[in-house]
Write a structure and sequence with these properties.
The protein is mainly alpha-helical. Helices cover 62% and strands 3% of the residues. The protein has 13 helices and 4 strands. The strands form 2 sheets. A two-stranded antiparallel ribbon has the order 1-2. It has a two-stranded antiparallel sheet with strand order 3-4. The radius of gyration is 18 Å and the shape is globular. GO terms for molecular function: catalytic activity.
């Protein structure tokens, strides 16, 4: 049975003195772990998030954006500022503008990177780069649900277009694989349900998925990538966000 109190304990054990989150109680904080730990806290409880928010800001104020040479990490940093309701440094937009053209010209772009670049280009209102990335997203030959999720965040029309691909990726255990016929994992289930949100889908799809997510819950208060696995901040954040969304939209 999912326990909000146990999940709070799970998160607090990974919240460091500098305000960041670490993957385990013994490992140091990282931007990625702090991003997922913050999202998990935000979706878990407004009261709990209010409690940990001042501490997480401590990590944020120590974050040096100029050390972030990957667009997805920069995206995560910006989202932290927004979730924590902190005004972004004025010089940040200039830094993004300086790096954006170099990044967007890369040929070996994965969908997650295309999405991050698209988000950054919209953030600083670089319309030509935004349009170019939207065109690339529309023509990208994706392979996995993760790919489709990031591309559909840019082009919502892809959700309807590839609905059958998403539905065929659901397995008998209620979870979703990377693509049809592959093993269920929590992250794929998150991507699938985010794609399906807002579409006219039979409730049974969501009920089965909820069952799989709850089966990934561990006694330490965290969620694993699959039932019986080790708890991670990423899978915990994904699970809490989806369960929060399902409870509001379906009253389950």
């Amino acid at each position: 049975m999912f326990s909000q109190e146990k999940t709070k304990e799970f998160l607090l054990l990974r919240l460091k003195d500098n305000g960041g989150f670490g993957a385990t109680p013994l490992l140091p904080s990282t931007l990625e772990d702090t991003y997922f730990g913050t999202l998990a806290s935000f979706f878990l409880s407004a009261t709990f998030f209010k409690e940990v928010k001042p501490k997480i800001k401590r990590f944020l104020f120590q974050l040096n954006f100029y050390d972030l040479h990957d667009p997805f990490k920069l995206y995560q940093g910006i989202k932290l500022y927004q979730v924590l309701e902190v005004e972004l440094p004025s010089e940040l937009k200039e830094y993004i503008k300086e790096k954006l053209t170099l990044w967007s010209l890369s040929e070996a772009l994965k969908p997650a990177r295309i999405f991050a670049l698209w988000y950054l280009s919209k953030f600083i209102n670089e319309k030509m780069i935004t349009t170019a990335l939207e065109n690339r997203a529309s023509s990208f030959e994706f392979k996995t649900l993760e790919d489709l999720f990031y591309l559909s965040e840019i082009n919502h029309g892809l959700k309807d277009k590839y609905l059958d691909f998403v539905l065929r990726s659901q397995n008998g255990d209620g979870g979703f694989g990377f693509y049809p016929g592959t093993t269920s994992f929590l992250e794929n289930t998150f991507y699938a349900l985010k794609i399906l949100s807002g579409l006219s889908i039979h409730r049974n799809v969501f009920h089965k998925a909820q069952h799989f997510i709850r089966a990934c819950y561990n006694d330490d208060g965290g969620f694993a990538r699959k039932p019986g696995g080790i708890s991670f901040l990423e899978s915990t954040a994904f699970s809490i966000e989806i369960l929060n969304s399902l409870s509001k939209s379906m009253s389950i």
